[in-house]
Amino acid sequence: VDTLVPVLGDQLSLGLSALQAAGRARTVVLMAEVMSEASYVGHHKQKIAFIFSAMRHFAIALRKAGWRVDYITLEDPDNTGSLAGEVQRAAFRHGCSRILATKPGEWRVLEDMTGWGALTGCETVLLEDTRFLCPLDEFAAWAEGRKQLRMEYFYREMRRKTGLLMEGDEPAGGRWNFDAENRKPAEGSLFLPRPFRAAPDAVTKEVLALVAQRFAQNFGRLEGFAYGVTAQDAQAALDWFLHEALPSFGDYQDAMLKGEAWLYHSVLSPYLNTGLLDPLEVCRRVEAEWRAGRVPLNSAEGYIRQIIGWREYVRGIYWLKMPGYTEENALAADRPLPGFYWTGETDMRCLREAITQTRDTAYAHHIQRLMVTGNFAMLAGVNPREVHEWYLAVYIDAFEWVEAPNTIGMSQFADGGLLGSKPYAAGGNYINRMSDYCGSCRYDVKQRTGRDACPLNALYWDFLVRNGDRLRGNPRLAQVFRTYDKMGDEAKQDLHRQAAQFLKAL
Ligand code: FAD
Ligand code: DLZ
Ligand code: SF4
């Protein structure tokens, strides 16, 4: 053996660039469960269980494919507790002269990796992660010299590049984007598919016991864990989605229903982000469903846009703006994260629903993340760094490259509008339109002030005015500020008093 290939918990792809470059003959692959990765934020129990079990299954798959693998479990008495420590031990154990690694998804780990050469005395080669459609230098070239980095234009480039949903040079159906058709609210009577579930096997059961014991204090419920943990499971989850949920995905993409965590969402992000599914393959399968006449274009286009558009775009932004991006705080928000984000104990039904569901499943769909927990935190002026750490901890699919731009940029407007041209701020009205939450809330969504008023209503106006210096000049907010300016002085004062009282009690 002369080459060491460390494979991280979100690099579980047989086609990983470092594996491709190494060749099996003189290589040992290193995989390690380490406390530093398991505790750099207080991950949800199901997230740790998912990663550890998927890692253990991937080691089995590697061995089957003929690789020599050193797998260090968390319980190994010699485990040093850090990636660098394990790389150093393995390089010494095997007398390696070379480390080949695929670059990681987080800045923090990249910094660590760049020190591995000095630490071990090995020649260290860091390769690009080729599991994305847009290489980072290509993204940087696209961004160069543009005043605004609009996702929509980036997305069109990706459509042309991949040929997905293209008819020659034209977008299928004559339009690039069918979002206008994707905003149907949900009704309680909708027929909802049962979500995909994988029964835990012996390996997963062992990991569940380990997590229950070693991470007992972490956020989240472990019971009911049913995520897939292998590439085969991920394929089954994809098949489930294509047949059961994709046809209605577009229509109900933004809808929310009590007690319904999944609706018509794919819940494929955990598999995409750890490498158990390939994004381009997923998109080709979605396109094929549309071409076969089994799903409408608004669903296929909406879905493909999330993956080749948003997913690639936020990754590009992350690497363009790091380090520093996770420290941004354009609105100078400094309130600590309310304690109920960890318990769900609040009378606001929308927040209780999103948070308890997150606790139970480590999942919430995009509109819950953006317009319920994200919106509230922004309106209340919560410190974006704390909000960022919460999202990074509680969701099964959370890795910083994708979580940070969504939280800091899209949801908190803390990057001052790089990602979105205006803050995603909303009062209770929006939530009432898109969900059935308000009907069973202790607050009245129609009221702005008074004991029973929906807190989001006063907070919404208070947020805009509080940040007036920054937001008043925004043409997309001109109409809202005009509405505010037309309110009587007393009404304005009532709103701000209402908001202040609520925030004080928070
Ligand atoms: P679907 O609704 O079925 O969407 C399909 C796929 O498109 C997803 O699996 C995902 O890969 C991709 N996608 C959709 N929206 C986005 C987006 N905005 N950015 C990047 N990819 C997207 N996504 C993560 O993967 N990890 C995160 O840590 C994460 N944190 C978020 C934090 C906030 C505050 C917000 C507003 C969004 C976040 N997202 C994150 C994006 C999005 O909410 C999730 O990708 C989605 O909810 C995953 O569930 P799904 O697979 O059922 O998605
Ligand atoms: C998230 C995670 C966890 C909980 N544990 C490990 C681990 O023990 N070993 C490992 O290699 N990776 C783990 N991961 C995933 C890493 O945090 C992830 O690879 C980096 O953050 C880069 O995206
Ligand atoms: Fe949320 Fe307000 Fe509706 Fe209650 S009334 S569920 S707080 S939006």
Automatic annotation (TrEMBL):
Signal sequence region: none
Organism superkingdom: Bacteria
SUPFAM superfamilies assigned to the protein according to its UniProt record, in alphabetical order: Cryptochrome/photolyase FAD-binding domain
Name the record gives this protein: Cryptochrome/photolyase family protein
